[in-house]
Every structure is written in C-alpha cells, then in structure tokens.
C-alpha cells in the first residue's frame, strides 16, 4: 500500500543518516560514497577539456586523434551521409541487434581486413564497441582460455589504453621495445630480441598499421622476420587495427601485415575499429575476430565470445554498423569511400610535409626527417614533456606530453603558428637522445 511504501522509504532515509555510538560520543554514520577517492583525469580527454576551456583565440588542439578538414572542422564522409539517407528512405527499425551484432556487417568487415578470399567458416567474429571494446573482450577471452600467468607483450610506446585494458582483464602485461628514442625510428633489433626472449605461447600485441603514437611501421620484410620469430616461439599474434585505409590511403596495402601472418599460418586475432577510417568516432563500431583451424573450433570460440558479451553489454549499437554495411556492401559506394579515405590520408600527409617545411624555413637546426618517414594521423616529434608543457602554457597549443602531434589538427591557417612555437621550444635543445 501507499502508507507501507512511504514508511519503508522513511526507514531507508533514516538508516542512511543514523548515529552510531563511538565511545561516549556519537557521530553521524558516513555513507560509503564519501570515502571514494578522486580518480586521475584521462591524459588525452583531460587535455581536450583544457582546450575547450582555453580562451586564447590562437589556441590549437593537436591532441585528440580525430580527423579535421582544412577548415579545422569535423568531416562526415559523403558516403556515410549517403548510407544514412538510405537508412531513412528504407525506414530501418531500431530493434536490438543479436549478442554477436549484425553478422552481415561483421562478414563485410572481416573481408575488408583479411581480404575477399577469407574463409568465413574459420573466423569467429563478433561486432564490438569499436576497437576499445574489441580489446577488452579479447583480454577477457585470453584470461579465460589461455593458461594462468600467460603474458601479453605490448609495444613501448603504445596507445595508452592498451595497458589498463589488459591489466583489468587480469593478464600479465609486459612490454617489448619498439621505438628508438636515440634515432627517432623503429627499434627493430630490440623488438626482435624482446619477442624472441618472451616465454613461448605469449600474446604479442601488434599495431596493424600506422602505429600509435609513433607512426613508425615495420617494412614488409621486417614483418616477415617478426612472423618467423613468432611462429618459432608459438606466440599468439593479436593485431589492433584502427587505421586501415587511413594510414597510406590504400586499405589493401594497410592490411599487408595481417594478411601476411594469415598466409604464413598464424591463428591471428584482430581488433578492428571503424572510428578513424570511416569517421564514425561516436558510433562505437568495430569487430573482434579469431582465425580458427576449423569450422568446429570457430563455432566453439564464437559461443564463448557471446557468453562474454551478454553480461557485459548484451548487444552492440546498430547505427554505425549499418552505415559500414551499406557502404562496403554497395560497389559504387565502396569505390567512392576508398577515394574519400585516400583524401583524408593525403591531407594528413600534406600537413606532415608542410609542418617540416615551415620548421626548415624558420631555421630549425634539427633533422625532422623522422616526421616525414612516419605515416598515419600522428607525428612523434621527439619533443620532451617540458617542451610540450611550454607549448601549452605559452602558446595554447594542446598536445600529449610525449611529443605526439595529431596532424589532423593542423591546417594552412595554423601550421605556421604551430611550427613557430615548436621551433621556439626546441631551438638549441635535444629532440633525440643521441643529439
């Protein structure tokens, strides 16, 4: 009854504020939320918040990895708009997706990554909450089905979220050398030595292309060496692919490493994101896949992925996956999309070259060729944390403190300002440990 509910409500309220005896005194009972400590701000999202709060009209955001057009504005791909218009015309519904997601989307996404000739009967794949969700589910899967104590080796440096994701899954997170700060280049010898020295059957996390944050990728011959060492050690190859098509402008070329490992017999796993290459940042659209030795094994793995997803988030959102499905499933739209993706990569490349050209024009004595040799959204400049802090404090240029510059934040209107500031904070100082 209403009176009973009211009485219960009053009792609950009084229980929260009741006094408890402490010696001869009493004090108000502390609610447990009062003792929750303040969490640390996210290193990247916190910088973005500071940028929004900054009132300097010359402020520049070269922190967050999201594409901007030549006017500094977010760009929705025309093919994405066309797909959305088709969805409106077809009056698509808003029903729940299955636990595994939209399998028509998933199969098209898997072919996009592995190649059109992939045997789908041997790929256990599900739709995920972008690449982050794919990594999280992979960590849960590994923690359940690999022997306790299995190590996962992650490059140093890497995308900052990798470490927390796999630690939270209970895996033993280790690092392998990837970037040589003395040369601002790939530390291939160190990488090979560490992968070879890892215990057999370790998980090795590999960036499929456009390594974040360095933009340094192995050559195809180097990938072959990595593959050979990993096969010898029976390591588990896990690819994180967030930039296919966005790295070089050629989606087929950007998938070379993954496809090489498949060709050479690795039972690879893949986290795939469509945030960057389709511009679907807020749609949280991706896949997780495991290449299996047989259809029977594929079905078992698929069932376990479903069991992980169900109590975690039940089923994925459908808007972004529907967009990708329409674009990749329509030959005309797919051809147009490839051109649009190439245009984004081309503009990023132009900004990379223009930044270095401006630094040279300003009289910088540093060799910036390492920036030119990198690919993808970021330039790993070699600037240290003090230089980055000075850029932010003196010039309102916001970036991560490891010297990573998001080239998408540059355009012809602000690149000279940014280059001038970089020149001022680096002039006469080291940007390589060997300087």
Structure in words:
The protein is α/β, with parallel strands linked by helices. It contains 16 helices and 15 strands. The chain has helices at 2-16, 43-53, 78-89, 103-114, 130-145, 161-168, 188-197, 220-232, 251-254, 256-263, 295-312, 319-328, 331-361, 369-373, 385-395, 415-426, and strands spanning 19-22, 25-28, 60-61, 123-128, 151-156, 172-177, 179-180, 185-186, 203-207, 236-241, 269-273, 286-291, 378-380, 397-398, 404-406. Strand 5, helix 6 and strand 6 form a beta-alpha-beta unit. Helix 3 (78-89) packs across helix 12 (319-328), helix 4 packs across helix 12 and helix 8 runs parallel beside helix 10 (256-263). It is globular and about 65 Å long.
Short structural description:
The protein is of the alpha/beta class and 435 residues long. It is 45% helix and 14% strand. The model is unreliable at 1-11 and 13-23 (pLDDT under 50).
């Amino acid at each position: 009854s209403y009176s009973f509910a009211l009485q219960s409500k009053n009792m609950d309220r009084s229980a929260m504020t009741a006094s408890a005896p402490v010696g001869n005194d009493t004090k108000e009972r502390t609610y447990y939320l009062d003792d929750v400590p303040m969490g640390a701000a996210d290193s990247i999202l916190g910088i973005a918040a500071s940028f929004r709060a900054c009132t300097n009209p010359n402020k520049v955001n070269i922190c967050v990895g999201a594409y901007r057009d030549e006017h500094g504005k977010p760009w929705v791909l025309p093919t994405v708009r066309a797909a959305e218009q088709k969805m409106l015309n077809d009056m698509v519904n808003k029903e729940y997706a299955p636990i595994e997601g939209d399998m028509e989307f998933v199969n098209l996404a898997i072919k996009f990554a592995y190649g059109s000739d992939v045997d789908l009967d041997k790929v256990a794949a599900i739709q995920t909450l972008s690449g982050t969700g794919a990594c999280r589910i992979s960590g849960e899967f590994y923690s359940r089905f690999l022997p306790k104590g299995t190590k996962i080796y992650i490059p140093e440096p890497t995308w900052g979220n990798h470490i927390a994701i796999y630690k939270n899954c209970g895996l033993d997170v280790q690092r392998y050398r990837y970037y040589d700060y003395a040369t601002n280049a790939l530390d291939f010898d160190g990488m090979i030595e560490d992968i070879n020295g890892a215990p057999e059957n370790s998980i090795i996390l590999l960036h499929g292309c456009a390594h974040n944050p360095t933009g340094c990728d192995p050559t195809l011959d180097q990938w072959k060496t990595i593959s050979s060492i990993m096969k010898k050690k029976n390591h588990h190859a896990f690819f994180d692919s967030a930039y296919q098509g966005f790295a070089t402008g050629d989606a087929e070329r950007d998938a070379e490493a993954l496809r090489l490992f498949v060709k050479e017999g690795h039972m690879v796993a893949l986290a795939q994101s469509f945030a960057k290459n389709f511009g679907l940042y807020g749609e949280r659209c991706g896949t997780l896949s495991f290449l299996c030795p047989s259809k029977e094994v594929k079905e078992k793995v698929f069932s376990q992925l479903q069991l992980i997803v169900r109590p975690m988030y039940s089923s994925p959102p459908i808007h972004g996956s529907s967009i990708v499905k329409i674009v990749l499933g329509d030959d005309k739209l797919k051809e147009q999309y490839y051109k649009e993706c190439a245009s984004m990569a081309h503009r990023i490349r132009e900004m990379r070259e223009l930044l270095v050209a401006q630094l040279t024009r300003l009289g910088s004595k540093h060799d910036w060729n390492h920036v030119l040799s990198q690919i993808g959204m970021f330039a790993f400049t070699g600037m240290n944390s003090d230089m980055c802090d000075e850029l932010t404090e003196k010039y309102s240029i916001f970036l991560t403190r490891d010297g990573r510059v998001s080239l998408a934040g540059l355009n012809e209107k602000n690149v000279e300002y940014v280059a001038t500031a970089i020149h001022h904070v680096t002039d006469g100082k080291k940007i390589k440990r060997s300087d």
